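Field: COMPLEX_INPUT
Field: COMPONENT_COUNT = two
Field: RESIDUE_TOTAL = 635
Field: MODE = joint
Values follow.
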Amino acid sequence: MRVDIRRSTVIGAPVEAVWAVLRDFNGHDAWHPAVSTSAIENGEASDQVGCVRNFRLKDGSRVREQLLYLSDAKRGFGYCILEAQARLRNYVASVRLRPVTSDDSCLMEWRASFEPPSQERLRLERFVREEIIETGFAGLRRALTAGGSAERTNRASVPARTGAATEGVEIAITRYGGPEVLVPRRASIRAPGYGEVRLLQTAVGVNFIDVYCRRGTFDLVSPGGVLGMEAAGVVESVGLGVGNVRKGDRVAYACAPPGAYASMRTMRADLLVRLPETISDETAAALLLKGLSAGFLLHDVAYVRAGETILVHAAAGGVGRIISRWAKALGATVIGATSSDTKAEEAKRAGCDHVVVTSREDFAKAVLNLTSGRGVDVVFDAVGKDTFERSVECLAARGRLISFGQASGDIGAHSIDRLAHRSATVSRPNYVHYTDTPEKMILQSGRLFDALRSGAVVAERPRAYPLANAAAAHADLEARRTTGSLILIP
Amino acid sequence: MAKTYSSAVIPAEATAVWAVVRDFNALPQWTPFVAESRIEQNKASDQIGCVRSFRLKDGGRIREQLLSLSDYEMSFEYSILESPMGVENYLATFRLIPITDSDQTFAEWTAEFDAAPDREDGLVDSIGRNVFAAGLAALKARFNR
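Field: COMPLEX_OUTPUT
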């Protein structure tokens, strides 16, 4: 038996603005909460009747749907399912908008009909009604009215990609190699498309991962590509389907893909964070990647609690200093490990209760001495090869070793049997998995900004280089001629 | 050909609104501009083809013929047979759509017609505003009480 589901709602935005968003058959990943990524097959246009959108749901399953009709006159379209995991046999659906002329909003109707197996009828009816349609209504409403401003919805009525490209400057790598391969070039920065914004960048963060990319150690950037994972700036223009930021917002990001070494950049909007008044662009560009890292390592990986004792390797380094001070603020006793006395001073200034200088003493022995043989609850280790074995040795019973980098080289293969001596846990977290959705980014950045306000994290003045002198910044970073963060100013 | 369109959200369930507007002879009961109405030839007001003859409060007389009525779609269509407005080929549609997430009703009223070119814009405005929008506003007010 065929079931027919009809749902409708009033969307508080002009019909033209809503249609501009809905009309893109491939744009549902920007507003439907269940859709993760979507593409039109065979490179067809998304308003080509007969085109197929092939998309992935947040639960990982894949769906293929075909556009059956599209009408700009009626502001509606119809489609059917070609393939889906759910048993939605012979599923056809239609969406239509009608203006509410009395108050400049619009009615959105969504109908679906299909032939469920009889024993699954109720479950599938509810699934379509709630998970597809009602969730879609809510997501679209959020996408259109985020920020609650009429200005936003009006802008959404401007068709995508009508804006002109703008001239900018970016730093590309001519090939893999030393700092000399960083070369400025003029670039055409295209207008933002669906779900994208164009940023006028005011400060760009320099991180050691950029050096790895430049050398080709990580293959995130191909020769001819642009380096850089983090920057701050102002939203210069906004594409369709962008709900989290508006034109003129001060924002920052710290995420893949690389491409931050530029005066302007067009990129996805959903991982941008809006900057509070109190945080400067320079601070954000210098701090975001390291600060977010320290934040999730402390809170979501190690779960550091008041009263615990922790060991931070490279405690004078960028992330090490932030972890040390923040852990102290959380009520932990912090032992720092550094390679030199000069760095030991830095680590003490960052809040370490004790500092072990690894060039003079065995850090594992020193830690056991400092803890009366008990060991530490958590070790934060980004040094890797040189420290891993001994880090395990200085864990207390049920201690956690957080290995988040390998500055001294690959850690290599280890038996987990030794962990049993202390019921130890080893984590190897990856930044991406803690920051790859807008929800996670809001959580992590909110926590970092709160910590900045409370003083648990202190923004240090970064050393600034002109964008065109990125090569000099890299040379200084690699020669370890600098302490603290480096930024590039476009 | 000219076209005019008005719509509104009525704060009542669709079945309640439909019960009011479904009667083709009920314009005096729910619009502010009709003085009296009758169905010609003693036909029922939901018989397709019936003609309502009504007098506006400003004195003009209009005859309109019911062309379709659907309880399933909650809509009806009608044409103008005679009016003082100077319109030809006038076809109007009235439709209700339930708003399923709020127990309210979307109502739309639309017409297409031909008129002398210099009068078209004025008619679009006067029918859209003085008739349709005013009628919908009255319907809204009726259920707002």
